[in-house]
Amino acid sequence: MKSRAARILTAVGLALAATTLTACTPAGPGDGLGASHPPGQTVAAFYGDSYTRGTGVSDPELRWSTQLSEDRGWAEINPSVDGLGFVVNRDLLRDDLVELIVAEDPDIVVVTMGLNDNFAPPEEAAKVESAIRDDLSTFANELPDARLIVVEPFWHTERRPASVDTIIGWVRDAAADVGADYIPGASRWLEGHPEWIAPDGIHPNDTGHAEIAERMGEELAKLGL
Q: What is the pTM of this model?
């Protein structure tokens, strides 16, 4: 018998996959990996999907993570990949992003993963939950001096399948278990504002990224960052 989580992913997550994320396909990692930084500069690494990679903006400098890093004087490492989840499309990557980020030894790690895992096959529900715990545990254990910030997974349509809240719960609980800071509410930051979405109907546009940068900045300020 399937678990309740598996049934949720089956009933609503997969039904949306064909129509909402067909444009999200894996791309190669990059963006700041291996770069040198001035002594004393805070290095922030971002672990996410197309929403964090900046798909949908007219210029990479306008993506929310870059705006946030520039405002705070951080050196940005952002190997985020379109279509990636904690499980979804992960086996298509040549290099695992968690390993790449750990190798950079950043001062801050911001995790925004989870949206694409709503489209995982039903039999992988338990695997998604386990991968969330494994990734956050790896960051916490391998980067004990880094500030680990886990963000509620983004969402992008008015239709909100039950799997969204299921995965949010897994991410929130895993963050608490490793003592990470947690930013709630991000799945609703774009809600009710279709004008903040790019013509593809999936990704934030320039205005959407500016809004995410502002909201993220407010939340980080509450955490003393």
A: 0.88
